[in-house]
Design a protein that fits this description.
3 helices; 4 strands; 41% helix; four-stranded mixed beta sheet; alpha/beta
Length: 98
């Protein structure tokens, strides 16, 4: 997985690319552990994300739980295939999706 980050003070945007799978979820989780410290506005941009697995969903859930205590998290620009996964798993009711 490749992701781009954009930070502005206490705001962070991660743009996820390609697939968030069991293989890449650990990489994202490690990055979030580092990057979310001091952040109170976290945006996950999924415009370039083609697939998310259950391991990827777990990382997003963990980030959401952390941000519930430290600010807000928003998921945006999900393509229809990824949005379908979020809806099927009920994550559309857990995550703040634009």
């Amino acid at each position: 997985m490749i992701f781009d980050k954009s930070a502005d003070g206490t705001s962070l945007t991660l743009t996820l690319d390609k697939k968030l799978s069991a293989v890449t979820a650990d990489e994202l989780e490690k990055a979030l552990t580092r990057e979310l410290k001091g952040v109170n506005n976290f945006v996950v941009d999924m415009a370039k994300l083609a697939y998310v697995s259950s391991a990827g969903l777990r990382v997003l859930l963990k980030a959401q739980k952390y941000m519930n205590q430290h600010g807000s998290m928003t998921v945006k620009n999900s393509i229809p295939e990824v949005m379908n996964i979020l809806e099927t798993t009920g994550f559309d009711e857990i995550l703040d999706i634009e």
